Amino acid sequence: MVKRRATRVGEWIIERLIQLSGMLGIILVVLIFLFLLQNSLPIFKERTLGELVFGQRWSPTHGDGQFGMLPLLLGSLYVTVGALVIAVPLALAASVFVAEIAPRRMREFLKPAIELLAAIPSVVFGFLGLLVVGPWIDAHVEIIKVGQFAALGSVMLAFMALPTIVSICEDAFHNVPREIFNSSLALGATRWQTITRALMPAARSGIIAAILLGLGRAIGETMTVLMVTGNAQVIPKGLLGFLKPIRTMTATIAAEMGEAAYGSTHFHTLFTIGLFLFIITFAINTIADVIVRRGEKDIA
Amino acid sequence: MQDHATDTVADEAKGGGGRQYAEDHAFLRAPVDASRSAEQAGAEHGVKISTTDLNIYYGDFRAIKSVSAVIRSNEITALIGPSGCGKSTYLRALNRMNDEIAGTHMDGTVLLDGVDIYQPGTDLVTLRRRVGQVFQQPNPFPMSIYDNVVYGPRLQRRLRRDEADEIVEQSLQGAALWDEVKNDLRKSAMDLSGGQQQRLCIARCLAVNSEVLLMDEPCSALDPTATFRIEELMIELKERMSIVIVTHNMYQASRVSDRTGFFLLGELVEFGDTPQIFEDPRDERTDAYVRGRFG
Q1: Are residues A75 and A30 part of one domain?
Q2: A30 and A97: one domain?
Q3: For B240-291, how does the pLDDT look when each residue is reduced to its tens digit (9 = 90+)?
Q4: What's the pLDDT tens digit per position in A39-60?
Q5: Which residues in chain A touch residue B141, judged by CB atoms under 8 angstroms apart?
Q6: DSSP A231-243
Q7: What is the reported pLDDT for A299?
Q8: Strands, E, within B12-121: which ranges?
Q9: Same domain? A12 vs A109
């Protein structure tokens, strides 16, 4: 009798433990959000949201400190959009090749190889950009004055986002029923037409989700952009802006958090940047999730 | 044979509508087709496809052994036989879909309107438009009904809106689907029932003016009512094309087809007029199979 109760208590504890670890992810996200909120809210006693978001100068040590985030927001936007422009066509081509064109043996080798790219630490990409690609461009491309600029960050980020996008896109292509491929061929489509007109529409939810997840990864990436984009908090203008130094939101936090006095305006503003980043990536991931689920319903 | 027909109906009825079903679908038991008697009286139809000494190999395995047969215009040719006997492989040889399966090769000849479709320089795109295929699983593209129908024509060229509209209406009419979907052309094809999806797949072939329709067990994923509608449609469609159907269902073969070929282990054992194959088979293996003694 006693023994049985002990078992029951033991089971109760184990069940609760499992439940807790299942909920740990959610709890952590909520706690991080609250932590960011707590540390960033005090800023709004001193500045308005409009001043922060649309302010054109970021200069924390200048007088009272100027905390206009527009250069940083645009810097992140430039680097990220540039990264997607490079990564998406490459990733689509790579995933189509792996899923539909490569022989099976090659596929078995290629997919893990591409996924392995994700295992390279971002600081290594930073080094590569800083010491190899940047100086080379500096020496060979006339129009570029400094070897550290927005587009270089884009290129590096593109390679870092590539494995995520390729892997998810490839799964999406692979999950399209074989019959769709065959019936397109049987209607007289070439392989290329079949891929672009039947396969891609059928896999579109997976493709969009892959791009969004790649986007989330690119926006949040810190170390590489800190090393290769030049760290100049200027507002990029037009297409030429890609060839000039900029600074992203993430790089700003990483570079300045060590110097900001605890509890100062500067300190709280850096947390506000973090809060914005959190909201952006959270929104992107949620949208990706919704799209994937809707896609699953379509195929079934 | 009559016994077996009854059995099948009884089996199928267990899954679905019960006794009501068996009463409503008494036609399934009667392997009689008015058009066939007219057919027998009439003249022979022209040769559409002929295969001579066709061998098909998967690697070293010879899946089709020296098959010679003739498929005629405006007729339905049924290919029957146990699983794995090669009838689907033979079917795919007629639009060269076997080319898509790694490791296959063939020898012998396949003539479409007298022209060898395996000669070098054959345009696969044209061939596959002329010889359309409907698969076992209904497989519409995950897009609207409208876009499914114009998929084939749009591969060739840009269509004006009115052209596209006309192709859609005619093809869906031809596939006996128009009345059911004319108000929902923009709806996803994935929302249609299995039988409607299969008729949509037939409409896709009609949209590219296929002259031959290859059907690989088109009804095996469908319920009996949907099956009946496809069979009706096939008999309508043979007025404008020739149809080759692979089926496991011997009653289906006897109901709809004009000629029947019996495959066994890659060999075409017997090929002839459908009534003759079912009522007076010359080969004892055919006899055993159509009487249900194996397979």
Answers
A1: no
A2: no
A3: 999 999 998 888 999 999 999 999 999 999 999 999 999 999 999 999 998 8
A4: 999 998 888 888 888 888 888 8
A5: 180, 183-184, 198, 201-202
A6: -------TGGGGG
A7: 53
A8: 47-58, 61-72, 76-80, 104-112, 115-116
A9: no
CB contacts of A184 in chain B (<8 Å) are 141, 151
The DSSP H or E segment spanning B259 is strand B259-264
Chain A residue with minimal CA distance to B198?
A183
Q: Is residue A45 part of a domain?
A: no
The strand ranges marked E within chain A are 58-59, 66-67
Residue B4 lies in a domain: no
pLDDT recorded at residue A263: 87
How many domains does the structure of chain A reveal? 2
Pair (A150, A248) in one structural domain: yes
Residue B28 is predicted with a pLDDT of 43
Name, in order, each residue with C-beta under 8 angstroms of A31's C-beta and a sequence gap of 6 or more.
none
In this structure, the answer to whether residues A22 and A171 fall within a common structural domain is: no
ipTM score here? 0.78
Tell me phi and psi for residue B61, to 5 degrees.
-80, 125
Any A CB within 8 A of B125 CB: yes
Judge whether residue A257 has pLDDT over 70.
yes
Same-domain status, A121 and A8? no
pLDDT at A300 over 50: no
Nearest to B135 among A182, A197, A202 (CB): A182
Q: Exposure of B272 by Cβ count < 10 A (0-12 exposed, 13-18 middle, 19+ buried)?
A: middle
Q: How far apart are CA A246 and CA A75, in angstroms?
A: 6
CA dihedral B230, B232, B235, B236 (to 10 degrees): -100
Q: Which chain A residues are within 8 Å of B126, Cβ to Cβ?
A: 188
User: What pLDDT, on a 0 to 100 scale, did the predictor assign at position A297?
Assistant: 60
Q: A15: domain range? A: 2-40
Q: Is residue B9 part of a domain?
A: no
Mean pLDDT by 10 residues, chain B (295 residues): 40 41 44 44 76 93 93 95 90 93 91 94 93 93 94 92 94 94 92 94 95 94 91 94 93 93 93 93 91 70
Q: How many domains would you assign to chain B?
A: 1
Residues A58, A142 within the same domain: yes
Please indicate, yes or no, whether residues A12 and A122 belong to a single structural domain of this protein: no
Tell me which residue in A182, A188, A201 faces B142 most closely, judged by beta carbons.
Answer: A201
pLDDT, position A154? 93
> Touching check for B257 and chain A: CB below 8 Å?
no
CA B126 to chain A, closest CA, distance in angstroms equals 6
Residue B120's domain comprises: 31-290
